[in-house]
Amino acid sequence: MPRYKESERDQIKSETRQLLLQAAIEAFARDGFEKANINQISKAAGFAKGTIYNYFESKRDLMLALIHETANLHLEYITARVVQEDEAERRLMSFFESGWSVVAEYLPQLRILVNTLYGPDVEFKLELWQAYQPMHKLIREDIISLGIEQGVFRPVDINFTTALIMNLYLGIASHADDEGRIWLGSDQVADFVLSALRK
Q: Which residue of 13, 156, 174, 194 could cross-link 114, Cys pair, CB 3.0 to 4.6 Å?
């Protein structure tokens, strides 16, 4: 019986944490990190104003958790689709297709990350860079290196090319409209990158 109660308590804590994160997403996307009020975030999630401190030490801690949760979600979504493909060219196309889809589905989170990336907070930028290293690894090892091994991509500086692809992706995705639509099609961008990579 105590185990059941403990797992039920853990479930409630997990759900509460997610509700607080969702309220933070809305507040940070609407007001920006600096102007967002942590007590209003708690109230928007349906809890008393001090509740948030049971889960996050500060507003900064809340933002750091949001960065990592969004990066993990982003990576899982894209990786699951990319690795279904056997050919490097199809993987690259899938990277942009799924990237465009994740932007549309999680637009508020993307806006927060883009504002963080171009904002003044050095700690947040570093945390964002670290959180997205697995995405760099996906591009570097599971797309570019694979394409070179398969003989379809010419030999390139893999780290430099990975950084270019990541910056191209983030730069174009940051211009999504309020519906999450991106002005360039994922196939157009993939074709552009493939034309530079093909032998």
A: 174
Q: Is CATH 1.10.10.60 what the domain over 1-56 is classified as, yes or no? A: yes
- Domain topology for 58-197: Tetracycline Repressor; domain 2 (1.10.357)
CA angle 115, 141, 161 (to 5 degrees): 55
pLDDT in tens, 9-28: 778 788 889 999 999 999 99
Question: What residues does each domain of the chain span?
Answer: 1-56, 58-197
**pTM for the whole structure:** 0.87
Label each residue of 11-76 as H, E or C: HHHHHHHHHHHHHHHHHHHHHHHHHCCHHHHHHHCCCCCCHHHHCCCCHHHHHHHHHHHHHHHHHH
